Each structure stands twice: as C-alpha cells, then as structure tokens.
Amino acid sequence: MSNDPSQIKKFLTEKILRNRDRDKDPDLLRQLSHISGERISVPMIYVGTTSCAIAAGAKKTYKAIEKYIDENQLSVKLIEGGCTGYCKAEPLVDVQLPGKARVSFQNVTHELIPDFLDEILNNSLPENLVLGQYHSEIHQLWDAVPFIHELPFNTGQTKILTANCGITDPVSVAQYIARGGYQAFADTISRHTPAEVCDIVEKSELAGRGGGAFLAGKKWKITLNAASDQKYFVCNAVESDPGSYMNRVIMESDPHKLIEALLIAAYAIGASKAFIFTRNEFSLSIKRLNAALQQAEDYGITGHNIFDSGVNIDIVVKEGARAFVCGEETALNNSIEGKRAMPSFKPPFPAIRGLWNKPTIINNLETLINVPLILKNGPEWFKSIGNDTSKGTKLFSLSGKVSNYGTIEVEMGTTFRYIVENIGGGVKDNSEFKAIILGINSGSYITEKTLDIKVDFDELKQAGSQLGSGACVVVGKESCMLDLARFFTTFFKNESCGKCIPCREGTALMLEIIEAATRKPAKGNTFQTLERFKGIMQLKGLAAVMKDTSLCSLGKSAPNAILNTLANFKTEFDAHIFERKCPAGVCRELRTYHIDVDMCTGCTACYKKCPVDAIIGAARQPHFVVQDKCIACNACFEACKFNAVIID
Ligand code: SF4
Ligand code: SF4
Ligand code: SF4
Q1: Which domain CATH number covers 530?
Q2: Rounded to the nearest whole angstrom, what is the distance from the C-alpha of residue 531 to the centroid of ligand 1?
Q3: Does residue 547 lie within any of the structural domains?
Q4: pLDDT band (50, 70, 90) for residue 81
C-alpha cells in the first residue's frame, strides 16, 4: 500500500466507503491493516496527549522522545494519541515494534526516556514500566507480559464507545476509516431513508444519557415529521459538572466518532446543518474536532452532495462560555444564536421550535456516539448489551477515593459495588467507603446501603437518583457530607444565571443556611443559635419551592445535594446542628483545639504562632488553649512537633 496521502484517500473513499462488500475481500482487509497501523514497517510510538495526560507530564515525555529520535536519526513513527481511560498510569506510552504485539508502558516521565528507548528499541522490555500488551492474532506476543484487557481496571469494562480511545491517532481520518469508521454513515445514506434510521434507533431502545432517558429515535421523529425548510441537530458537549470529563476524553481521543454520529443523526431528521456545542476552555477538544472536521471535508464525508447521494450536511464546532447553564437546551440554543446563554420557557420544545425558531434536536455526546454502532450492527445487537430495562453501555468519569481512576465504560446493569471494588480497585489510602456522588446535577448519593444498585435508569429512579452527568466520585470516611453539600450549593449559587427568583435567591439562602450549620454561633448569641435552627427547619420548604418554580433544571436540582445529605447522612447533619461538631473534622470552625499536658514540653512554638493570643503557658511548662479566644486557625497544630495539640 502506497504511503501517498492522496492514494490512501482515493483507496478509502472509493474502495472502502462506497463498497459494501469490503469485509469479504481479504486483499482489501490486508491493505486496511497497514493504514490502521496494525501492520507496520517501522516502530510506532504512541504518547497519550489528552488533557489528563498533559497534566501528568505527557507533553514533556513526547518532546523527550522526539529529541531522542532526532538525535539518533531513527526511523520511528511518533504519534500523539488519545486516552485509554486509565488516568492513573499517565503518562502512558505505547510501543509497537514490527512483527511484535503492542505494549503499553505506564508513568513514563520525560527523564526516563533515554534509558526507556535504549531498551525497548533494542527489543528488551523495561519491566518496571510495563503495563501490559495488546492481544494480537498476527504479531508475536511478548513472554510473561499481562494482557491489557486482563488488568483489573479493564476486565469488567465493555469498551464499545471507547474502543478507539488511546489506540488510534485521534486526528487521522485514514486510521478511523481503516478501523471501520464512517462505514456506517456511508451505508446509511445509501441504504436507508431518514425515517428508517429513526426507526432503527428507536428499535434499539437507545435512551438519552443526559438524565431524562427519553428514547432518542422517538425524539428524532418529532423533528423529522415537523414541516420546515430548515432543521438543525446539536450535540451537547458542554460537560460542566465537576467530576465529569468523559465527553472531553471522547472529543480529544476519537473526534471522528462524534462527527460520524452527528452525520447520521442529522441525516435522520433531515438537518443539513449540525453543531457541536462545547465549552471554549476545552481547547484541545476544539482543536482536534476542527482538525477532524477539516479531514472529513477533504474526504468528501461532510459538505455538499456527500458520496453523490444528494445529501448535504455541514458541521460546525460552537464554543460556549464556561457556564453550567449553557448545557440547558434553551440556553444552549440562545448561545449558538449569539445571545446570552439564558434558559427560556418550554414549551415550545426545541424539537418543534429551536435554533432560529426551526425544529432542532439536541442530544448529548454520549447518546450520539452509540448511533454509528447501532446502524452498523443493528438494533438487536445493541439491545443484547445491557439488561432488560437499560440498553448499551454507560461511560463514567471515575474519581475520588478509589485506587484506579479514569474514564470507564460498563455495561448497563453493572452494580456500583463492582465499579468501586473491582474496576476502581477499592477505596484507597486505608479509608472506608462513604458514598458515591453521581454528578452535581443529580445531587444524589449512593451509600453503603445502596451500593448494590445497578447502572440502570429505572433502578436509579426508584432509588430517587439518576445517572446524571457520568461523574462517579467516590467519597471516603474522611470527607464531611455537609462540607460537600456546601461545595455543591456554592457551585449552584455561582452558576445561577439569575433569571428567576427561586433559583437566584434560593441558592443564596440555601448557602447561608448550610454555612451557618458548619459554623459555631458566637458564644452567648442566642439570636444566631435560633437563626441556625430556623434555617434548617426551612430547608425542605425552600427546596420544594425551588423545585416547583425554578425555570430550568439548574434551579430545580440545586437543592438535591442538601436534601440527599439530610436523607442519607442525618446523624452527620445532627452532629453539626446539635453537638456543633463535625465528625470528619473537616468543618474548621467547628473544631475544638486543646493541648495534652502530658505531651506538651512547653517549647512555646504554638504560643508564638497563635494569631489571637489564645494560648497561655510559660516556657518548659504545659500550655493551654483559651477556648473563648480560639478561632480554629490550626496554626498551633501545625507548629507543634510533639503531637501535643489535639483536635476534637
Ligand atoms: S433556574 Fe436558575 S439558572 Fe435556570 S433560569 Fe432560573 S435563575 Fe437561571
Ligand atoms: S487553633 Fe489557632 S487560634 Fe486556636 S489556639 Fe491554635 S493557633 Fe490559636
Ligand atoms: S508546640 Fe506543642 S509542645 Fe510546644 S508548647 Fe505548644 S503544645 Fe506544647
């Protein structure tokens, strides 16, 4: 196979994308394996350079490899890759030598590069860095190297949406096509009418991953059947929920998958224009999406009269502000139209009257990227994944107090216990499991009592929860749930767009109440004490008003964190309110400091550091804390070298 890009393009567009018998021709398949990077003639090195990897130093690793190759004048292909999801192992470097299976190496920091490459390029494995090898039917496997798919982090995962992530060059349209990409789109527009595509997607029971779980195919039909000269499809890739990052991983690791999904979806509703709406600070996502879109256009996959089918679809990446409310459908539409991102009343729903008053479908990124797989493998295949009530897989951004963290993809029906204990490798640092936070929007917790609940729309709904944004933050015993509720409420208060009173004033009032609960009232101030109790009594009523009367989901879901803390961690709440104690010792203003006279040597270090003269004592004599003066600044605790300062 020639390496000439124009020859490769001709081959892929004419012999592959327009040829439905492509899989039956062994010669074509062999040529594809060269383009996909499966068969190689020179060593290939992939460095994952997504945002998470860059934060771990992957760019420096990449530069060090580049320098090594230049200095040694080597014939080696170096590629900036995507993210396999295993953030813990970053910087990750994969090396494939001709004829040998690809091996993944973990935590390859830049200073290790010369020795690392000296070894691996001479056919020897730097054993301390080996993570695992990829299974191969056509290459020689390495001895005594575990398979990547057998690592505890990977065994329980079903990687269909993330199959390319970290494996391919994200901005190589040729590699994407050679691995089966854009074939579903090419076949769809030549074989199916838009109505048939909607039917197939509806039959697959693909439900929206954003929380509502509405059937995607059913929703698409509303717009397909709406009479209009112009329709739009929008991919919502805003992802503003703290703790969720899987949209970003997909956009940075496999942008062509999203483009293909959007092309099929736009075709299905009769839209000639589609948007990918994301946050403007996702600079790498935007860069890779735009590069991929340019390639797709060069290959004639987007634009006018695609593959001579008469189908026209343009896709544009739209950058929105870094605001949570931009993810709300109507605010998102306003932002695309160039207006301030503020929600509007519904109805009319965007499916009938959306962008520029035209029928518009908005699906989130994760929902969409299922679509090419459904069209390629059929609705029954998709329905065979998952359980009776929820089909397919679910992506999560697993983080917090777990040993293994990163982007994971599990089959619907997997229990959260399995996610924490098997994929996550259990709670780390000898801590104890306390809860999982399933995204700030849902504000719902999974506790030890509900840890066997399944990743399932119905089961979560019955438990008063929802899948939410895909954030899956594991909380250990050392975290204070009121402190977390305070964090969430602060977030919502700051993110409220201010359009409606219940949300604008309600979030501020809720924050005041929760802050009062994590503070000691001034001594002797009965009014403050009463206010504190009154605030707690008002919480439920206030939450009900916000839920009933806020205009959009931000205001409606803002009280969830506090309500769920009250429901699931009442003893912790009570300890703050009635005993004025934070059991986890996190709420600083509720801490009490005192000095153990038996441990105190009278060194005076704490006395000198205390900013409010709350410590008394003479040199070489035990010291004491005057509680009325102490402001819980922690300076004495940090100053004492004899463990004599005790915090209650
Ligand atoms: S609920 Fe909050 S974010 Fe939504 S429109 Fe009202 S003020 Fe704005
Ligand atoms: S916590 Fe701060 S204010 Fe309180 S006794 Fe120690 S140093 Fe002084
Ligand atoms: S720093 Fe520790 S040992 Fe020294 S006086 Fe204070 S409490 Fe005692």
Answers
A1: 1.20.1440.230
A2: 27
A3: yes
A4: very high
Report which protein residue has its CA nearest ligand 3's atom 2. 640
Ligand 1 pocket at CB < 6 A? 325, 343, 496-500, 503-504, 550-552, 554-555
pLDDT, tens digit (0-9, with 9 covering 90-100), for 565-622: 888 898 998 898 888 889 998 998 888 899 999 999 999 999 999 999 999 999 999 9
**Measured from the CB, is residue 610 less than 6 Å from ligand 3?**
no
Inform me whether the pLDDT recorded for 468 exceeds 90: no
Looking up residue 463, the CATH number of its domain turns out to be: 3.10.20.600
Task: Tell which of 127, 149, 171 closes a domain.
Answer: 149
Q: Is 406 found in the same domain as 297?
A: no
Atom of ligand 1 nearest to the CA of 504: 7
List Cβ neighbours of 613 (8 Å cut-off, separation of 6 or more).
629
Structural domain boundaries enclosing 642: 591-647
From the alpha carbon of 550, which atom of ligand 1 is closest?
1
Q: How far is the CA of 616 from the centre of ligand 1 (A)?
A: 52
CA 587 to centroid of ligand 3, rounded, Å = 23
Instruction: Give domain status of residue 13, yes or no.
Output: no
pLDDT score of 443: 65
526: pLDDT confidence band, cut at 50, 70 and 90? low
Q: How many CA atoms lie within 13 A of 311 on its CB side?
A: 26
Residues 133 and 214 in one domain: no
- Least confident segment among 237-251, 362-376, 394-408, 577-591: 577-591
Q: Is the pLDDT of residue 1 over 80?
A: no
Alpha-carbon distance of 296 to 169, in angstroms, equals: 15
Q: Given ligand 3 and candidates 597, 625, 645, which is best to mutate, with the most ligand atoms within 8 Å of its CB? A: 645
Q: CA–CA separation, 294 vs 373, rounded Å?
A: 23
pLDDT > 90 fraction of the chain, expressed in percent and rounded = 79
Residues 617 and 563 grouped into a single domain: no
Number of domains in the chain: 5
Ligand lying closest to the C-alpha of residue 611: 2
Run of H or E including 320: strand 314-320
Predicted ipTM?
0.82
Q: Rounded distance, CA 206 to CA 220, Å? A: 12
User: What spacing in Å lies between the alpha carbon of 608 and ligand 2's midpoint?
Assistant: 10
Mean pLDDT score, 626-642 = 93
Q: What is the 32 CA–ligand 2 centroid distance (Å)?
A: 69
CB of 633 within 6 A of ligand 2: the answer is: yes
Number of the ligand 3 atom closest to the C-alpha atom of 603: 4
Strand 44-48 relative to strand 615-616, pairing? unpaired
Q: Is residue 321 in a domain?
A: yes
Give 440's contacts (C-beta < 8 A, 6+ positions apart): 241, 242, 243, 468, 469, 471, 488, 491, 492, 561
Ligand 2 and 626: CB distance under 6 A? no
Percent of the chain with pLDDT over 70: 97
Q: Which residue has the tokens 């879901």?
A: 557
Per-residue pLDDT, 533: 67
Q: Which ligand is nearest to the CA of 505?
A: 1
Q: What is the CA radius of gyration of the chain?
A: 28
The model's pLDDT over 419-453, given as tens digits with 9 standing for 90+, comes to 999 999 999 988 999 999 988 766 678 999 999 99
**610 CB within 6 A, ligand 2:** yes
How far, in Å, CA of 558 to CA of 497, rounded? Answer: 13
- Residue (of 267, 258, 294, 257) closest to 190 by Cα position: 267
pLDDT for residue 525: 62
Secondary structure of residue 19 in the 3-state scheme: coil
